[in-house]
Every structure is written in C-alpha cells, then in structure tokens.
Write a structure and sequence with these properties.
mainly alpha; 3-stranded antiparallel sheet; 3% strand; transmembrane transporter activity; transmembrane; SLC13 family permease; transmembrane helix; membrane
Amino acid sequence: MSAAKLSLGTIIHTVIGIGLMFLGHVLPCPSLTVPVNDALVAAGFPVVDGNAVITITRMGMVNAMIFLGVVYLWTFVDTLWPCFLGVLMLAFSGFTPAPKVLSSFLGNPMVVMIFFTLCFATALIKSNVSSWLAQWILRRDFIIGRPWTFTAVILIASYFLAFFEQTSICFLIWPVLYSIFDQVGFKRGDKYVSIMLVLIIIMALLSFASDPFKTGAFLLLGNVWGLAASNPGMNVPALPAASYFCFALVVSLVSIALLMAAMRFVFRVDVSPLMKLDPEVLRKEPLPPMTGYQIGVLVAFAIFACWILLPGIIGKDNVIGAFLGRNSLLAPLVALFLVGFVHLRGKPIADISETAAVYPWRIFLLIAVAMLLGDAMTGKGTNVTVYMEYMLRGALAGFGYVPLCIAVILLGISCTNFCNSVVLGLVLTPVLLAMCNAFGMNAGPLMACFIYAVLIAACTPAASPFAAMLFGNTRWLSPKEIVTYSVSSSLIIAGVVIVVGIPLAMLIF
C-alpha cells in the first residue's frame, strides 16, 4: 500500500504557520498612545507630550507570533505536532530557560488537574454509562406517538448525557436517529433530518459550555481560579462552579426551548412521519441491568461533581467548604483512587491502564500548550496584556455595563468560529479582567457570559472538534445545511445569553 501524500494545501499552510512563528523576531513592535495615568507611570511606560506610550516588547512580539503560528497550524494542519513545536520554539526563544519552560508546561497545577480529570473522563467513556442511560431514556412509552415530545426528549437527553463525554455524544445519538429516519421514511435533505443532526452537536456544545467538572467551561473557570490565586491584586471574580452551573443550566434549557420553537414555527419542520415510529425499533436489543462497574463509576462521578460544586453551595466559611475549596485540584485524583481501589469480583471498577487507547492526548496537549504559550505571551515583560487592554478600552470607551457585556458576547461567539474556542477563551480572559478592573466594573457577570458564549463554536470546521464532526457527516448533511442551521442556532443562543444570561449573571455574580 502506498503512503498517503501530503496535499499541496497542507504543505502551504505548514510553511505559513512555521513562518509566522519566526516573524516575531523581525516585525516592528506596535505602539499605542494613551492618556497617562499613575498605573502606567508606575509600570515604567514612557511619557511623551503628556501621553503614555505602550509598546509591545520584542519578547512579547516573539511569544505572540509563536502563539499565533501554533494556533494557525492547529486550525489548518494538525493539533498534535504543532504542540511540540510551540514548546520548542518558546524554549529556544530565550524567554526563560528550557527547564523552566518544561516545568511551566506540565508542572502547572491546573494542567496536572486537567490530566487526571481527562483520565477519569476516559474511565466514564469506557464504562458505557452514557450509552446505557440513552437506551433507557429512549425506551420510555410516553415519547411514542408524540413527535415534539420525542424531539424534546432526544435534545434534552443529549444535553445531559453529554456531561459524561461531549465528543462522543454524536456517535451515541446519531446512529439512533439514523435507524429512526430509515424506519419512518425520512431521507437526506429533509428539514427534520438536517436540523436534528445539527442540534445534536449544538446540544454537545451547550453541555461543553455548561460543564464545570471536566472540560469546556471547567477549563476556562479553572483559568480564572488560577489567575485569582496568582494575582491577588487583580480583583478576579470568584465564579464558583455551582453558581456558574446554575447560570449555564438556565441559559441552556431556555436555548433548547427556543431552538425547538424555531424548528416548529420558523423552519416549519414536518414531523408527521414520526407518528409511524414503531417502538420496537428503539427496543430491538434487550437492555441489560446496569453493571456494578457502571454504578461504581457513576458514584465516583457524583463524588467528584459534589467536590467541585459544594464549596460554591455551602460557602467556604465552614470546615467542609473550606477543605473542599482549598483542595479542589485533588478532586479528580480522589475519583481515580476510588475507581482503582474498589474491586468487584477481583477487578477494579475502572483500570485506567485499559483506557490509554482512548485518552484524549490531542485535547490535553492542546490545552497544556495553549496555557503555556498564553501565559508566556501575556506574561510580565511582554506588555501584550496592557496593549490589548488599552486597545479594547479605546474601542469600548463610553459603553455601559450591559452594552459592554453584549459586545463581549458577540465578540466571543463570532471569533470562536475561526480558532479553537478554549484557546481563545484562555487568551482573552486576562485581557477582559484587566479591562473590567480599569473601568471599575464587576467582572463576574461579564466573564460568566463570555465563557459560555465563547464555547459555542459550530459554524466552521476549525471552530471545534464538534464542528469538525458535523462538517464530516457528508452522508446526511450538505455544507449549506450545516452553515444555515448552525449559524441560526448560534444566533438564537447568543440572543438567549444577552436577554436571559446577562440579567441572570448580574443576579448570581
């Protein structure tokens, strides 16, 4: 068998991405002239004609272009080898000694927590808990003969089941829908088929944006918590996991209701074929009882979730809340210990050595490198954060709090479709926090809305792994259908975040 050849487009994108990583050494360092204030003078920025001159340093340019080059390669070429190249380029840049680069890369406490969290997530996947729950839900009699009830159950079940593992939910629900489409006579191109397949991915994204336990929102919330711990003078909002989860849950459920309303009253989807649905199609395979191993994994997940959520529910002014909050980084280790220590019939509930084949190395490395390069780009001595802060302050000057939140939501949900959503969130978080501090505004509601909005990425293949799976389903979907329904869904969700999310966040945070 002949080896597959690289396409010309891949080669061109590779050359462009690597070239971008070297441009920081030769590009001029951009400057910004702003009214002088005590903070800028104290930071050492020069004053010319009564104005402070903010200039990104040469090291800031080098680090920024390394980061931009890696993001470009992630978007157009691959998500694995650019991670290693980015670490090497940073080590060779002279920003900090190589041992310190490696220590920051894999020694970051948040990265270590993410590593063990993903280990536990693979145990959840291996247990097939979500598959068992999906089959159980779809066998309920009350959905038969009620097309819109059936649709609502499919969407809501997809949203909640995705908390176990977002990226696999389409492989769990799509095959069920395919068999239903064939049985009732739906075919490729029918509105119900196209919209439902797109909405399953949207449900995964809503779950991704709501999840304070493992991925998605957890990664960006963890970044905020890390900034709060390392920058005590920055006035970083608390954003407790429990409070954020309540906020995201309400926004998601309202979004699901409006997405269904759009199906019914805007797109006028014909659901009459579902009246012919034979319940035996959903019950063709007997459903065995949940195994002890699956129950054990569910119990461990419940303990893990409670550990993350309880400090925000009961507060940290008591012994339990203070202990859990102080040791939140250890929650995934506790879950892994339990599933490895407790044995049933001579076997551990979950053996993580058996899950190595499904460990999401690409996701882990992408997050670890994004945090490393993001910190290097916006770190002390680069002036990148200050430059971006004052650039945004100039563009958004005069905005009230609500218009500012709306602008940030639209910025997040638009830009996220052209680069990795988590990476964009990690980079913009310190900039938005600095801007809120400068304006004297409470950053909590704005950051909650931004974190949710920036994770809704479905309109281009580069937006997220979920979007890539959507655009890869050429058997059932055309690119036009994907763009039409993903863009309309994103607009509906953005509207919900603005109309419902902003006042709710202001009430909670």
